[in-house]
Amino acid sequence: MYNPSETRYSGKMLYQYCGNSGLMLPRISLGLWHNFGDVDDFGVATDMIKYAFDNGVTHFDLANNYGPSPGSAETNFGRILKENFSGYRDEMIISSKAGHEMWPGPYGDRSSRKNLMASIDQSLRRTGLEYFDIFYSHRYDGVTPVEETIQALIDIVRQGKALYVGISKYPTDKARVAYEMLKSAGVPCLIHQDRYSMFTREVEDGTLQLAHEYGCGFIAFSPLAQGLLTDKYLHGIPEGSRAARSTGFLKREQVTEEKVEAVRRLNEIAKRRGQTLAQMALAWVLNHEFVTSVIIGSSSVRQLSDNLDTLNRLDFSAEELQEIEKIL
Question: N or C, which end of the chain is more exposed by having fewer CB within 10 Å?
């Protein structure tokens, strides 16, 4: 297997080869899942994209349904690109996905060829791009044959609508089928995207190893467990936090006393390392040898800057890893 190494090209940013490919990704990528929709402040969104790029974040991760409203993150990103980055397209990696509910009716959801082909055309129109660098099947939907979905991805590359393809949240048996089919077609899977954090470690039970076996990179989303692995929840659930809202992916019932106690203990280790808890949690995910990059969200330039400072300290002593493992 090719052994990728980190290379520093731009300021504080580190880059790593993605699997067996010649494509380097920044170790920290910016996700537009939250805070870039039409309900959000467009000026703040613009400032975050500009700050990220100026500090070496070259990879921006979208999906057709990101918003809210669905599609608005792609539309806003396209506008930001047009107004600020017209001469920089070749210095960016822009990814999008399809597979979750996007529009009403039987064809706006799941992973059929019909959905993927319509979705990528819509996403290209919204962003104003000629192609995506990476296009993902956003999920295995439990219904569509994997072969149908993967053939659509192969054809998307052959049609010039994406340079590379990836899969997201695929169980290992379905991922293996996808990897084999893509490899046989001469369109190897570049990257697998899945949830991975100190509190969500299912990918350690085969997903990471399988991706590595096939020369596929891995990128982690929700590396801070929707904010739980920050100093926000050291004393329970603060007003206005994600867990305090009735909507969202971090539920109040997930912020248990056991989790809060673990967060407090992890925070003590982070302090000793000269890091915030968030920085240590990101560094811990990046410390796994099969992880290429992590996708962070951000609501402000300051938060983005703090997270990028993670790269100042990625190493862990054996004692620190042992202590963290005991807590987890």
Answer: N
d(CA 200, CA 26): 22
pTM for the model stands at 0.93
Q: Which domains does the chain have, with CATH numbers?
A: 7-227+280-314 (3.20.20.100)
Side chain identity, residue 231: D
Tell me the C-alpha distance between 176 and 172, whole Å. 6
Angstrom CA distances, 152 to 146, 185, 186, 211, 300, stand at: 10, 12, 14, 20, 37
Confidence of residue 53 (pLDDT cuts 50, 70, 90): very high
* Residue 186 near residue 158, CB atoms below 8 Å: no
* Cβ–Cβ < 8 Å for 93, 25: yes
In angstroms, the Cα distances linking 96 to 62, 164, 233, 313, 319 are 5, 11, 31, 30, 39
